[in-house]
Predict the 3D structure of the following.
Amino acid sequence: MHEKNVYLNGEYLPLAEAKISVLDRGFLFGDSVYEVIPAYRGNLFCFAMHLQRLNDGLKAIRLPISYTTEQWLDILQPLLIEGDAQYIYLQITRGVADKRDHSFPLSCTPTIFAMCNPIMPVLGEQGVQAITLDDVRWKLCHIKATTLLANILLRQKAVDEGAAEAILINEGYATEGAASNIFVVIDGVLITPPKTNEILSGITRDVIIHLAKANHIPVTEDVISLEALQQASEVWLTSSTREILPVTILDHEPIGNGQVGPVWQAMNGLFQEYKQVVV
């Protein structure tokens, strides 16, 4: 399928021809969820895990969709383009209502949209800068909803300061990045915040925990204070499109010795091997 083609409500068509109604609740309210699914060598990575998170999000916003795994694959696989690393963006809105009203419409057909784009290479060996900002988002961050304005403003603040990401602080503890999960290494132990409504549980996050346990790298899910974050020997950002990105400068101060650390080197190697064999 041509790389400009997208899927919209049962049709594959050029991106420029994909249109939705101005009364679509995803447009009006952000009443929708989404998923970002990497693909390597034409295979959707950890698809079952992504699909489970999608279904959890749909259930959380009370939007029932009864597609099977095979039906989703039939929709998404034709979108994959040539190239080793790419990702599917999938968004499901509650659909088009007769009028703008905050309450759910009595009858509404969900809008389903999907497209594919290449994953741009990230040079993790060089490390990136990050800043800390107050976590001003809502209390349902575990839902992968499209209502991302707070995340956008936080991420843009980081970009304005020449940083790659904002690491968010809630009541003195790190939660996650504006568009990523976080890991730290303290005294040789890999730590990431536990799953709560304050974070979006990333698939890459879960894969890293699995790989650490399988390869005897000490790992735990625990709270990370701002002080612990600042004193960590390594800090990482993780997401489906940026994989595992080491932070070497935080709030204009070096993390550890200011170089990419050995635990990241080991984990990145394990992850690169894993994604070649797991679908």
Q: What stands out?
A: Residues 124-277 form a domain with the D-amino Acid Aminotransferase; Chain A, domain 2 fold (CATH 3.20.10.10). The chain is about 25% helix and 30% strand. The longest strand covers residues 32-40. The chain has two domains: 5-118, 124-277.
